[in-house]
Amino acid sequence: MSEAVVFDMDGLMIDSQPYWQAAQLEILQPLGVPITLQDTIDTTGMRIDQIVDKCYAETPWNSASCSEVCDRILQRVTELVCEHKPVMPGLAHAIRVCQQQGVKLGLASSSPMSLIDATLEMLQMKDVFLVKTSAEHLRYGKPHPEVYLNACDALNVQPYHCVAIEDSFVGLLAAKAALMKTIVVPERSAADDKQFVIADHQLASLEELTPELF
Fold first, then answer.
1. Is omega for the bond preceding 143 within 30 degrees of 0, making it cis?
2. Own/partner long-range contacts of 92-98 (Cβ < 8 Å, ≥24 apart)
3. Lower CB density within 10 Å: C or N end of the chain?
4. Do 152 and 197 share a structural domain?
């Protein structure tokens, strides 16, 4: 039996990926960056500063710093998440299953802590997670495992006794690199992607989470 479950946030707990994609297009295209919707899809799970730095390296702009551009994107995403409250199907069920099993709950996200806090406030889940960790100020974001290792350390549980629940391949790689057991719930359009075979279990939604998977 696993001792802890660590949730990703964007794309797993909330359907925020469309807002990240829209915000990147809205902010970066006027700067002259030839970014497409597919580009934003391909970087799902990456930290926003890494995405912005990559865009700047390929198409530099002069009107704002990379940090300011990141702040604009984050602010727009936060506004959209709080306005639309895009809770993923099965989230309440998944939390309830975990609580019934008595496992510790943690959160490990590439998003800045400000968005994590705003999301948990919107979901009324501020007291659900014992630990919340962000890759915001780490040297590397996902697919590097540090954010997951930090969550396991904070929970005082060895990674191989923890289950990570992810939606993106980048996040799945991070959890696997941390030596955690993994459950992936990919976006429906990506469900048949063979790269998800590395997960211990793949679900169609959080509604399929059962105690046996732990």
1. yes
2. 93/206, 93/207, 93/209, 94/7, 94/165, 94/206, 94/207, 94/209, 95/125, 95/128, 97/209, 97/210, 97/211, 98/5
3. N
4. yes
Which CATH number belongs to the domain containing residue 47 in this structure? 1.10.150.240
pTM for this prediction: 0.89
Specify whether 200 is catalytic.
Answer: no
Strands of the sheet containing 104-109, edge to edge, are 131-134, 104-109, 4-7, 162-166, 181-184, 201-202
**Taking the CB of residue 197, how many other CB atoms lie within 10 A of it?**
8
Kindly give the parts of the chain with pLDDT less than 50.
Answer: none
- The SS3 of residue 53 is helix
**Is 9 found in the same domain as 22?**
no
10 classed as catalytic? yes
Q: What pLDDT, on a 0 to 100 scale, did the predictor assign at position 137?
A: 93
Q: Identify the domain boundary among 84, 108, 130.
A: 84
User: What's residue 45's pLDDT?
Assistant: 84
Q: Could you tell me which residues come within 8 angstroms of residue 192 by beta carbon, excluding any fewer than 6 positions away?
A: none
| Last residue within a domain, chosen from 38, 66, 84 | 84
